[in-house]
Amino acid sequence: EGWGARVVVDYHDPEWPARVRDASPGGRGVGAAVNAAPGGAATALQAVTSDGRLATITGDPPPPERGVQVTDVYVRADGARLAALVETLAQGLLSLHVAATRPLAQAATALQDAVAGRASGASVLMLQRSPS
Fold first, then answer.
1. What is this structure's pTM?
2. What is the pLDDT of residues 75-111, one digit of tens each?
3. What is d(CA 67, CA 70) in angstroms, rounded to the nearest whole number?
4. Chain-centre distance of CA 2, in angstroms?
């Protein structure tokens, strides 16, 4: 709510691609989808209309079908790009919902929550600086 979604589906529901198609104009599917669920790219492809686009960051892109353009997005660490995003956020040109702020020692828990779908927004990991 508040992020512009008209329909929300749970990717744990095996019928979610059909629900997306049913909610789309003419039942054809969405024009574009992004997959971040390991092993979920082929399932996400079922929700995309013919000649649409699918991007996945999981390294398991399905073969293109029905004219769908499939892109395997390689995610890598890039400090300069991260700094540019932080500046964009500071300027108010980008919004980010922070659900939790945790110490760096809880990074594994934050990642587990995100992967399990328990995170309701971004988790910020804080470094504690030693006194100078």
1. 0.59
2. 788 899 889 988 998 998 888 788 889 998 888 888 8
3. 9
4. 17
